[in-house]
Write a structure and sequence with these properties.
inorganic pyrophosphatase (n-terminal core), six-stranded mixed beta sheet, 2 domains
Length: 338
């Protein structure tokens, strides 16, 4: 984090502000953890801050301190609009394009507040006055820690703040196994544990709260897995009918895509999930090595993200989407077999 960004944020926070903090639609552990971490910090500094999320988030994240204060736009649009209209500063966390926030997009496009972006995804937009973008970071939570440290305010890190950032780092690094996990990441995590983050509690509450229906859904997903050995690729499909049969709840499919990469020789794993309410197929891409799923998602499925983890979408049927996907693989055969 460079000195210029630190100075700009410090200047902004030297006076009382009305602050709104916003993560991307369908927020994950890093999105919720980073917004909560920043919210705790700003409140500890005496700022008037509120978190607004575009839509609801998984139950396995709702144990974190402060989640009960989060405003969900789809449930309380009126309050959210008022807060955004009155905001003097808007922090956008864990996304870098306003198209990632669903129905909140037009409200932010019309907002008069000063925007601050903190994000680690590739190819950021230029909507923010202050942009802290670093694709080498493990998570947005690690970046929020860097902001607090850069402002010489680590003494403001409470146990509530620490567990929020720890949880986001843990989930976005695949429990510290992804290549984005650096020695610096472990240093930050160690400092968060020293500040009161209970690491075992975080693991248990995120990963060990399965319902029988979720495990049955996982079984269905694994049964549906297709392995394309010629392309070192595996993909999973889940139809709306299958989701309904296993009483799908938001967050239930989290991590399913990673099972493909546990197979020997597989370097590209994908899950296609039908969402009839939105009329789309939601897609998650994962890879190992140098194969860029970010570039693949951007080129073919209206998405993007990181080199080894990205998302996308399709507006055609589940069958047509997988047919298109399979038709694309031959042109990437050399890369997938490198």
């Amino acid at each position: 984090m460079n000195l210029e960004i630190t100075k700009a944020i410090k200047t902004l926070l030297n006076v009382p502000q009305k602050i709104v903090i916003i993560p991307h639609k369908n927020p994950d552990g890093d999105a919720i953890g980073s917004t909560l971490g920043l919210w705790h910090y700003l409140k500890n500094k005496g700022q008037d801050a509120t978190i607004i999320v575009p839509n609801d988030f998984p139950k396995f994240l709702k144990w974190m301190p402060g989640t009960e204060q989060i405003i969900i736009f789809e449930k309380d649009a009126s309050t959210a609009r008022q807060l955004i209209n009155k905001a003097t500063v808007i922090f956008t966390l864990d996304f870098n394009h306003l198209g990632r926030i669903g129905q909140l997009q037009p409200l932010l496009e019309d907002a008069s507040a000063t925007f601050v972006m903190i994000d680690h995804h590739q190819e950021p937009d230029d909507y923010a006055k202050i942009t802290y973008s670093d694709v080498s970071m493990s998570s947005t939570c690690e970046m929020v820690y860097n902001v607090i440290e850069g402002l010489n305010d680590t003494e403001c890190i409470t146990s509530e703040l620490a567990i929020s950032l720890y949880t986001g780092i843990m989930t976005d690094t695949g429990s510290f196994k992804y290549s984005s996990t650096t020695s610096r990441t472990h240093t930050v995590v160690a400092k968060l544990i020293e500040k009161g983050a209970k690491n075992t509690e975080a693991h248990n509450k995120v990963y060990d709260t399965n319902t029988p229906s979720r495990l049955h859904l996982l079984g269905c997903a694994l049964k549906n897995m297709v392995i394309l050995e010629e392309f070192n690729t595996a993909f999973i499909t889940l139809s709306q009918e299958e989701l309904d049969a296993y009483e799908y709840k938001k967050g239930d499919t989290e991590g399913f895509v990673n099972y493909g990469l546990t197979l020997e020789g597989i370097v590209f794993a994908v899950i296609f999930i039908e969402n009839k309410e939105e009329g789309i197929i939601k897609i998650s891409f994962r890879s190992e090595g140098d194969f860029s799923v970010n570039e693949f998602a951007r080129a073919h499925f209206n998405g993007g993200g990181h080199t080894n983890a990205a998302g996308g979408r399709s507006d055609v049927s589940l069958e047509d989407t997988t047919t298109l996907f399979k038709s694309l693989l031959p042109q990437y055969k050399a890369d997938l077999n490198a």
